[in-house]
Amino acid sequence: MTLDEFKRRYALHQLPTDTGPQIHRTLRQAAVLVPLMEASGELELLLTRRPTHLRAHPGQISFPGGKVEESDASYADTALREAFEEIALPRDNVEVLGQYPMFNTFTGFAIAPIIGVVREAFEPVLDPGEVDELFSVPLSFLLNPANRIQKQFSRRGVNYPVYFIPYGDYFIWGATAAMIDRLCRQIGN
């Protein structure tokens, strides 16, 4: 899918409305950048792998992002700040297309997914305290429903969908995979 086709589909199709698990406690506010980048005429989704030494979500695949800080003017500001801190993606190199509804997690976060397009190639510099690796997945791979797996799991007597996306040596799951599934369902129709 080309960037122009993605933008058309993103603009024309209704945003998803699901918010993830229903959590009945105060959630910490966070935002992530869902960064798409064109390479050789095809869109790719940029993802990070968290270091294994981290206490929270060690070794998991995620989007650049983190907790909202008082100095952040908006969720988009949080996502762009975190992307710069984690992978040195300059904020003025991202065209923000929009924000998905908040996504709740069992780990106590309400995450604002910010959809953005990286305008031109950049030289990533990884913050070793936050990111072990930056990699990309072709959007065409993610758009294929056969590559996105959904299973039902029970937690405290309530069934929830959990998403999984195996890609090469990477295993994307949980909130990140759910957000990818949301995006693919929106633009894939």
Q: Structural class given helices, strands, pairing? A: alpha+beta
* Main sheet summary: 8 strands, mixed
CATH superfamily, by name, is Nucleoside Triphosphate Pyrophosphohydrolase
Second-tier CATH architecture: Alpha-Beta Complex
In terms of quaternary structure, what is this?
Answer: single chain
Number of strands: 11
**Domain module tally:** 1
Shape field: globular
Mean pLDDT: 89
Helicity level, as a percent range?
10-25%
User: How far from one another are the termini?
Assistant: 13 Å
Highest CATH level, the class? Alpha Beta
Strand content: 35-45%
Model regions low in confidence, pLDDT < 50 over at least 5 residues: none
As a whole number of angstroms, the C-alpha radius of gyration is: 16 Å
CATH topology: Nucleoside Triphosphate Pyrophosphohydrolase
InterPro entries: CoAse, NUDIX_hydrolase-like_dom_sf, NUDIX_hydrolase_dom
Domain Nudix hydrolase: 27-159
Cofactor: Mn(2+); Mg(2+)
Protein name: NUDIX hydrolase
Attribute tags:
about 35% strand, single chain, magnesium, NUDIX hydrolase, Nucleoside Triphosphate Pyrophosphohydrolase, about 190 residues, coenzyme A diphosphatase activity, 8-stranded mixed sheet, hydrolase, alpha+beta
Task: Describe the overall structure.
This is NUDIX hydrolase. Its cofactor is Mn(2+); Mg(2+). InterPro entries: CoAse (IPR045121), NUDIX_hydrolase-like_dom_sf (IPR015797), NUDIX_hydrolase_dom (IPR000086). It holds the Pfam family NUDIX. By secondary structure, the chain is α+β, with helices and mostly antiparallel strands. It has a single domain (3-138, 145-184), classed as Nucleoside Triphosphate Pyrophosphohydrolase (Alpha-Beta Complex). It is 23% helix and 37% strand. The protein is built from four helices and eleven strands; from the N terminus they run αββββαββββαβββα. It has helices spanning 3-12, 75-87, 139-143, 174-188, and strands at residues 28-39, 42-49, 61-62, 65-67, 94-99, 103-104, 109-118, 133-138, 149-155, 158-167, 170-173. The strands form two sheets. Strands 1, 2, 3, 4, 5, 6, 7 and 8 form an eight-stranded mixed beta sheet that branches. A hairpin with a 2-residue loop joins strand 1 (28-39) and strand 2 (42-49).
